[in-house]
Predict the structure.
Amino acid sequence: MTAVQLLLVASILSGVTAERTEAQNRQHTPRSSVAVMDTSDRKKITGRVSIALAWGERFSPPAAYLRGFIHLKEAITRWTNIEAAIERHFMLSSPRIMDLPFVYITADEVFDLTATERENVEKYLTCGGFIMIENANPRMEYSPAEASLKQMIRDSLGRRARFAPIPNDHQIYHSFFDFSDGPPIGAELWASGRYLAPSVPHLEGVWLGDRLAVVFSNKGYIVKWTDLDNNTPQLKMGVNILVYAMTQEGGITIKQ
């Protein structure tokens, strides 16, 4: 084989290898989340999104409520024109977090983050990410899970982690459905014998500049999401939070 022929073969093989590598990269890279918005009607939003229920090295979401996150994904598909997919068993230390506009973290017991997870959360939030943290045991006032969830944000953001009530006129209550009276009741109102736990009147948030980056829920929405019925308001609130995360200024989603 002549030198020219050898060069031609090498060029062809190089092109094939490059195409194969590019295809493999496309296969293993999560799809970008895209929101196509209609300024005349917020409910005409279309697009696609990947959402994550997060695990950590020292915590995992309560197994009894895993189905609730699937129900949330199904509600997004049922009520909106957004194509939703779940990132399965998503680890909070994963670099793929930077591709996700919405990450949900829940717990019902005490935990803390590793150094890598804290760094990842800090980078994610400051680069436009959005995290919803939720106490899965809202019936217990000042529970260890509530303390751990808020502490993970404080450990990640330092002095920037200042929790404050989200006012009822905030866009998160009107991003898709309207909740003019604020967030609906979740699982925090629970009758047990003669005891009735008080309702939590609001969601809390952490703002980075003007952007709402973290929502804290002490309402146990995921407990209601797991139910097979009587959970429509709670699922609609979940849809609102997801749509808000996708459409907010400074977020990760590609907006068109």
Notes: The radius of gyration is 21 Å. The helical segments are 3-28, 66-79, 115-126, 144-157, 221-226, 232-247. Residues 110 and 144 are 5 Å apart (CA to CA).
